[in-house]
Amino acid sequence: MDMKKVNSLDFTEFVSVFRNVVERCPLVAAAVWSHRPFSGLEDLENHFFAFIDALPKSGQEGILRCHPDLAGRDVLMGRLSEESRREQSHAGLTSLKTHDRLRLLHLNQEYRKRFGFPFVVAALLSDRATVFQELARRLHCQPESELRTALDEVKKIIHLRLIDLLDSHYFGVE
Ligand SMILES: NC(=O)NC1=NC(=O)NC1=O
């Protein structure tokens, strides 16, 4: 993980590389660039986390709303980002049988009706059964605690996407 390379990126290069670390929210990468140089992965990701933690509730809900539903319309229409497609396919969510896909669609609709944002889970750390279990469980949580749970899942996604990027050919491996 070559942090010298990360710290040498100008603003445009940095945002081009890290723009989708937070799904469909390039602003976060644009803001994090100001905090360079970064001492390592943890320092870099802590600046992504700090930006999200400092947002007003409306902004935090906005971050969640930028995440495509699991096995949702974006999957069917082929509109997922590369990262999201890889994550959802890893959890077996891009090839659900119709019955399961409709059950997930219904649960997602119930969840979004209750909380006002989509159910978010770090799909790379999950699988089909766990997604259904977690969605059914979290559907009954209190809104305040569920917002924190959902943001924690976003942070896991950020962590995994940063590891993937920093270990990619772009940065080489020290
Ligand atoms: N609603 C979601 O949880 N979406 C996602 N989780 C991931 O890990 N990738 C996604 O697109």
**Which percent band covers the strand fraction?**
under 5%
CATH third-level topology of the domain at 68-154: UraD-like
Shape: globular
- Small molecules held by this entry: 1-(2,5-dioxo-2,5-dihydro-1H-imidazol-4-yl)urea
Kindly report the average pLDDT value. 95
Spatial gap, N to C terminus: 5 Å
**Class by helix and strand content?**
mainly alpha
CATH superfamily of the domain at 68-154: Oxo-4-hydroxy-4-carboxy-5-ureidoimidazoline decarboxylase
Radius of gyration: 17 Å
Q: Major sheet: size, sense and barrel closure?
A: none
Helix percent band: 55-70%
Describe, in plain words, how this protein is organized in 3D.
The radius of gyration is 17 Å and the shape is globular. With 174 residues, it is an all-alpha fold. It has a domain at 68-154: Oxo-4-hydroxy-4-carboxy-5-ureidoimidazoline decarboxylase (UraD-like, Orthogonal Bundle). The chain is built from ten helices and no strands. It has helices at residues 3-8, 11-18, 26-32, 41-54, 57-65, 73-76, 82-90, 98-115, 128-138, 143-166. Helix content is 63%, strand content 0%. The chain binds 1-(2,5-dioxo-2,5-dihydro-1H-imidazol-4-yl)urea. Residues 67-70, 84, 87-88, 118-124, 157 line the site of 1-(2,5-dioxo-2,5-dihydro-1H-imidazol-4-yl)urea.
